Amino acid sequence: MGEPVLKEKLYTYADYMTWTCEERYELIDGVTYLMSPGPTWMHQSISERIGRRIGNFLEGGNCFLFYAPFDVRLNADAGDDTVVQPDISVVCDRSKLDAHGCVGAPDLIIEILSPSTRRHDLMLKFNVYLRAGVREYWIVDPEYKTVSVHILDNGRYVTNVYGETDHPSVHVLAGCEINLSEIFAEF
Fold this sequence. Notes:
This protein is α+β, with helices and mostly antiparallel strands and 187 residues long. It has a single domain (38-70, 83-183), classed as tt1808, chain A (Alpha-Beta Complex). It is built from four helices and 13 strands. The strands form three sheets. The chain has a six-stranded mixed β-sheet, sandwiched between helices. Strand 8 (97-98) and strand 9 form a beta hairpin. The chain is globular. 29% of the residues are buried.
C-alpha cells in the first residue's frame, strides 16, 4: 500500500460501491489506494488480542467494536471521497452506523503497522484521521513493540509512545487499559 492506483480521475463513495474487483481499496480524498494482501499471522494475532480486550470492556455498553474490513466514510457530509478500513474501529454513537459501515469519525481507530503500510499509516492516514476528528488514534508497531497513542486536543494530536511493558489507557473508554506485555507476548 502507499502508491495511488486508478489515477484517471477522483472517485467518490458512489464509485467505490460499484467496484466488483477482488482487490480491496481505500479511498482517500478521491484517490484510490490498493490495500495490501492479507495480513501476517502476527498482525492478526495482535489485532485479535487488542480487540478482545476492548470488546470485553465494551460488553453490555453502548459502543461497538469493528475489525477490518469495515468501511469508515470519514467525510460523508462533504465530498464523500474518503473510505478507509482501519484494523480496529470503536464507534460509540450508534447514529453513525448504517448498512455499509460507519458514517463519520469513529471514536477510536487502531492501525497495526506492517512493512507495506508503515508510511501510509504513519503519514497519510494520521493526517486524514486528524482532519476527520478521530478522537483517539493508536498506531501499533509490532517490530519495535510500541504503541503510539494520539489524543485529539484542540484540533491537533497529543502523542504518547508506550513500550511493551506499559499499560496505556484508552482515553475515549474511561477505565479501559491495555497491558502491552500481553499484546506483544511471544513476538
